[in-house]
Amino acid sequence: MSAVSRRKILLPLVALIIGAVAYQLITSNPPQGRKFGQRPPTAVAVEMKALERGDYQVTVDSFGVTQPKVQSRLVSEVGGKVVHISESLRSGAFFKQGDVLLKVDPRDYQVEVSVAEASVAEAEVALEQEKAQAAIAEQDWNRKPSTQKARALALREPQVAAAQAQLKAAKARLEKARLNLERTELRAPYDGRVLAKMVDIGQLINASTAVADIYATDAIEVRLPIQNREQEYIDLPGDYIGAKDNDILPKVIFSAQVGMSHYEWEGAIIRTEGAIDSGTRQLYLIAQIENPYEQSDNQRPSLKIGQFVEAKIYGKLLEQVFILPRRAVSQNNALGVVIEGRLDKRNLTPVWSDDDYIIVRDNLDAGERYSLTPVSNVPAGTRVRGLDEAQKTPGKKGRGERVAKEKEKPAKQVSQRKAAATQG
């Protein structure tokens, strides 16, 4: 075999052997990619706060419309022509108990009183006559009656009794006539205010004619709906026969916007309605505001009947609980707790929640730190650190600090040039 033929055979064989050796070296020692300046994963900066127990006052938000505690329709008890209307019997006017609100022409009733007085006088005369005749009969009888009935007839006892009855009836008619005369003046049954007036001076009215709608001003009421879950957190007045109401009724703070100002009134829950509302399936509480028309120091306007008000009902005091801001708790009631720099997710069972806070008793320990920053999308086990620690980390300057440093450089250079020119 010639030398040229041997080279043609050996060269491919040598290349194959070299390739096999190189592949063996590469597979046995794979290259390790490393980025320049590679560091451990950065910790997530969160706002943290230590857990502590405290007392929380439960408040239930509700709303309602003011309505009178006592509302009446004034009705005339006698008929006649209206001859006087008091200024207190105008829509929105206030009146005191016993004030004369309306007068009916009394002349017909004065005549009836005079006639009744004359009847009484006649009856008294008739009675005296019967008594005198009875005395004469007792003196004049010649033979003693054999029976008790005969003796009574002889002494005119039935006639005397009839005269006495006539006198009593005449006095009753006189009392009724005087009462009707008194009723020509319609008086206020209590301290109150006029809702609506229905008659005016000169009008002819009959007995039982409606004169005005009025309501008492000593207190007003508001119906407040609450949800079923909220009932157990309010000390409601007793709903049982013979049950005594609580010494301290649940307080309610009412608020309303009047013009550009916000005003508040204080009241209390005095009772609950006897049935669940069939439309809303909610229980209604009855709150009462005492003396709503007394003038206050802050010139607070008076409440109007039919005015919409918002209410904050003060319920039970939850003692030794954890009060967590709602933003710190996820929608599935999980809280991010920081343990040794790593995030742990705790499932919570709230005992109360509102728009601002979640109240918890268990599955947390006082002193543990939790994240105020929402971490629902951060997996458990992630390294975290507080925002104050992140701001104090050396070697890292915030954008604001860098900008400030860059602004200082031209100022320093100008100062140095001015100092050199002064020395020159």
3D architecture notes:
This protein is of the alpha+beta class and 424 residues long. Among the domains are: 70-215, OB fold (Dihydrolipoamide Acetyltransferase, E2P); 221-316, no CATH class. 29% of the residues lie in helices and 32% in strands. The protein has helices at residues 3-28, 107-140, 148-154, 157-183, 387-392, 399-423; strands at 44-46, 48-50, 53-68, 71-75, 80-85, 94-95, 100-104, 185-187, 192-197, 204-205, 210-216, 219-226, 251-258, 261-272, 283-290, 308-325, 334-339, 342-347, 352-353, 357-360, 369-371, 384-386. A six-stranded antiparallel barrel has the order 3-12-15-14-13-16. β13 (251-258) and β14 (261-272) form a beta hairpin. α2 runs antiparallel to α4 (157-183). The longest helix is centred in the first third of the chain and has 34 residues, at 107-140. The chain is rod-shaped and about 195 Å long. The chain starts with a helix and ends with a helix. Mean pLDDT is 84; it is low at 393-414 and 417-424.
